[in-house]
Write a structure and sequence with these properties.
The chain has 248 residues and is mainly beta. The protein has two domains: 52 residues, Beta Barrel (OB fold (Dihydrolipoamide Acetyltransferase, E2P)), CATH 2.40.50; 135 residues, OB fold (Dihydrolipoamide Acetyltransferase, E2P) (Beta Barrel), CATH 2.40.50. The chain is built from three helices and 18 strands. Strands 10-11-12-14-13 form a five-stranded mixed beta barrel. Strands 1-6-7-3 form a four-stranded mixed beta sheet, with no helix packed on it. It has a three-stranded antiparallel beta sheet with strand order 2-5-4, with no helix packed on it. One of its GO terms (molecular function) is RNA binding. This is Exosome complex component CSL4 C-terminal domain-containing protein. Its main location: nucleus. It is found in: Nucleus, Nucleolus.
């Protein structure tokens, strides 16, 4: 009797037998049974030529927009040939993330990761009508995160990351002053460069499109970028230094 596959698996959950499937990424085999190794949607891949009749059973880190979990995921779902991802379960190397700065020190800044984006989502305007859940509503997440009243202990439940002084920008690294690059509460777009240790990921803002995307002035007003290193308060007219991401 074949057991129906779950839509989303958690680590250690039983998925199926090796008599019916081949264990793929995100799974492991124990006692002839395939178990999930990570949390994510269950995906049944194409039949392997070596097995002839067995499909690959895997657990993905992300959910394709146009594919249902537990079904065969299309290899291509966009004109560019790259699947559209709704959201990622975990940050991975080269993931584009939006994070809030929680601490700034002389050598590094600590950030709390709010959203993990796919490459296309990070380079296209946000469209709330395309979102499918609260996790996908990036505008709402950022608006809430940028509100100082919402800065609480919830950051402890999010993935933590570090932006080291040498990873802030690509040029003149020795002249970087962290207090002039970021302030607590800033929303930063960055790219994961290392999974780090058990406590912190490492991310970089050393590209023109990476850096601060939302920030409040000392007066508490939302600022707008005026150059790659300055943002301005529209109410007071005062400019403040930041490592500004190129606006799209």
């Amino acid at each position: 009797m074949t057991t129906a596959l779950p839509a989303v698996a958690i680590p250690g959950q039983r998925l199926g037998s090796i008599a019916s499937y081949v264990a793929g990424p995100g799974t492991h085999v124990q006692n002839a049974t395939i178990y999930a190794s990570i949390a994510g949607p269950v995906v049944v891949g194409p039949v392997q030529p070596s097995s002839r009749t067995k499909s690959v059973l895997s657990v993905s880190r992300s959910i394709p927009r146009n594919a249902a979990p537990g079904a065969n995921a299309p290899a291509k779902s966009t004109s560019a040939g790259k699947p559209k991802l709704r959201y990622n379960t975990l940050p991975a190397v080269d993931s584009v993330v939006l994070a809030r700065v929680t601490r700034v020190q002389k050598r590094q800044a600590t950030v709390s990761i709010l959203v993990v984006l796919d490459e296309s989502a990070s380079s296209q305007p946000l469209n709330p009508s395309q979102t499918a859940s609260d996790n996908d509503n990036i505008e709402a997440i950022l608006s809430s995160a940028a509100n100082p009243e919402n800065h609480s202990s919830s950051d402890e439940l999010r993935f933590q990351a570090l932006i080291r002084k040498e990873d802030v920008r690509a040029v003149e690294k020795d002249r970087v002053v962290m207090d002039e690059m970021f302030r607590v509460g800033d929303i930063v777009r960055g790219t994961v460069i290392s999974l780090g240790d058990q406590s912190f990921y490492y991310i970089t803002t050393a590209r023109n499109d990476l850096g601060v995307v939302m920030a409040r002035s000392d007066a508490g007003n939302m600022m707008f970028p005026v150059s790659w290193k300055e943002m301005r308060d529209p109410v007071t007219g005062v400019a403040e230094l930041r490592k500004v991401a190129r606006p799209f």
